[in-house]
């Protein structure tokens, strides 16, 4: 019996499982990519995932780190890899050391400090790229990109045997290309993420939208979160095929969030917007957009 009930949905053939309520818990896992964005309170279901990509140190996003790492050891798995803003590595180590003393067993961890612009390999054909967000000191977001090879246009008309022959001669017949699969913004105030082409063109964008009513625009600013007006401006400008909304507060119901999104977004954009927490329970391979 897993420790948590999680939302489950599939976008662009990629499974997403997670939970995200502002101030309570945020954890978003993508098992096929072997990444978990933030760790929340470390639900059992995500413990086998090898990479945690932490955006910032707020308790609702980071509380489960020690448990995740320790439980992997308990289950005989390799030490988990945690990418975290560089300024958080020392306090994370202190917490893990303290838990090691409390528990009587060291907590193995592969901690990787990151700053905006860094890249980290996830699998032979996948890597994570780090970009800045505007939330707390050092806070970052992550894009997971796939590396593919694309035949150079001048060789497009060749037959299989001709291509094999060129390869034998050691001629580079293809160019490397990067396909941005998913970008996760974590918690952030509005920024013009459209200036980052790999975020703007990610197939899936996972974005927070914390505040929904007009009177709460000031609260969004104070907490460095996005208000629905900023969220609308952001997603209308980007080219993502799917947008997954996270980090609603307990006070906004799914029905209310959908109603307000319908008022603020164009019909074309609405058709690609999904609310994570509207997909609690069993895996949903045909999730419904807000529209
Ligand atoms: Zn948060
Ligand atoms: Zn936060």
Q: What this model shows, in words?
A:
The chain has 291 residues and is of the alpha/beta class. The protein has one domain (7-279): Metallo-beta-lactamase, Chain A (4-Layer Sandwich), CATH 3.60.15.10. The protein is built from 9 helices and 14 strands. A 7-stranded mixed sheet has the order 1-2-3-4-5-6-7. It has a 7-stranded mixed sheet with strand order 8-9-10-11-12-13-14. A hairpin with a 2-residue loop joins strand 1 and strand 2 (14-21). It binds zinc ion (2 copies). Residues 56, 58, 135, 187 line the site of one zinc ion (ZN). Residues 22, 26, 58, 60-61, 187, 247 line the site of one zinc ion.
Give the topology, please.
Elements: E1 7-11, E2 14-21, E3 25-30, E4 35-37, E5 51-53, H1 59-62, H2 65-74, E6 81-85, H3 89-103, E7 110-114, E8 119-123, E9 126-132, E10 140-151, H4 160-168, E11 174-184, H5 197-200, E12 204-208, H6 217-223, H7 228-237, E13 242-246, H8 254-264, H9 267-270, E14 273-275
The structure holds zinc ion (2 copies).
One zinc ion binds next to α1.
Provide a short characterization of the protein structure.
The chain has 9 helices and 14 strands. With 291 residues, the protein is α/β, with parallel strands linked by helices.
């Amino acid at each position: 019996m897993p420790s948590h009930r999680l939302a489950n949905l599939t976008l662009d053939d990629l499974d997403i499982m997670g939970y995200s309520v502002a101030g309570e818990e945020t954890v978003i896992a993508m098992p096929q990519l072997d990444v978990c964005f933030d760790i929340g309170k470390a639900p059992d279901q995500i413990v086998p995932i090898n990479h945690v990509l932490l955006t910032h140190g707020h308790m609702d996003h980071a509380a489960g780190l020690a448990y995740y790492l320790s439980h992997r050891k308990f289950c005989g798995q390799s030490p988990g890899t945690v990418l975290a803003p560089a300024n958080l590595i020392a306090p994370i180590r202190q917490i893990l050391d303290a838990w090691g003393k409390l528990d009587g067993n060291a907590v193995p961890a592969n901690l990787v400090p990151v700053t905006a612009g860094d890249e980290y390999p996830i699998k032979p054909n996948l890597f994570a790229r780090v970009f800045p967000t505007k939330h707390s000191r050092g806070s970052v977001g992550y894009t997971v990109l796939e590396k593919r090879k694309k035949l150079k246009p001048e060789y497009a008309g060749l037959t299989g045997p001709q291509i094999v022959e060129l390869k034998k001669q050691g001629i580079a017949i293809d160019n490397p290309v990067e396909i941005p699969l998913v970008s996760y913004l974590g918690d952030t105030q509005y920024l013009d993420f459209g200036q980052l082409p790999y975020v703007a063109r990610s197939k899936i964008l996972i974005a927070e939208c914390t505040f929904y009513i007009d009177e709460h625009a000031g609260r969004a600013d104070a907490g460095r979160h996005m208000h629905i007006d900023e969220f609308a401006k952001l997603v209308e400008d980007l080219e993502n095929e799917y947008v997954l909304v996270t980090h609603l507060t307990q006070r906004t119901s799914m029905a209310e969030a959908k109603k307000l999104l319908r008022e603020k977004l164009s019909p074309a954009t609405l058709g690609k917007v999904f609310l994570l927490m509207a997909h609690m329970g069993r895996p949903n391979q045909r999730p419904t957009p807000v529209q």
